[in-house]
Amino acid sequence: MSGPLIALTMFAxxxxxxxxxxxxxxxTMCSIAGAGKFADFFKFDxxxxxxxxxxxxxxxxxGFLASQFLxxxxxxxxLNQEVVSQLETLGFQDAGTSYLPQELFGANAFNLKTLxxxxxxxxxxxxGARYAxxxxxxxxxxxxxxxxxxxxxxxxxxxxxGLLMVHVLxxxxx
Length: 174
Hints:
174 residues; mainly alpha; globular
């Protein structure tokens, strides 16, 4: 259901001459808050892009509705047993039974190391999205639907970076 709706949305945006992306909303919100007084990057007509803020609001509302009304609390997650074993060796006790493992999202998981990882990861994501000229949703959905070569290269880079993170860096961090 979501695939055709995304395609229809992208077609409508193409006809309207608009671009879609989540990271551009941060620039819009910073501009609304007055960041243009401190950096020229934020000096632009944010009202022209304010329509895209509805995407953020929709993502927040959709996530809330899905977690509260569409999730089954006793639903077992269909994970390969080998993946469950690997996660258990990393210290995840409820692997395969919970989408939000307590080792990552529980009250005991928040400490200085977690805070530093979150801050560092957030900085790298923000820097990467700015350096790449957009985030994964902007390049993968909007850029590829516009047949933009830079978006294809960015998406390939996102996948390579994701694979390196999961298979090389993540085991080193945890």
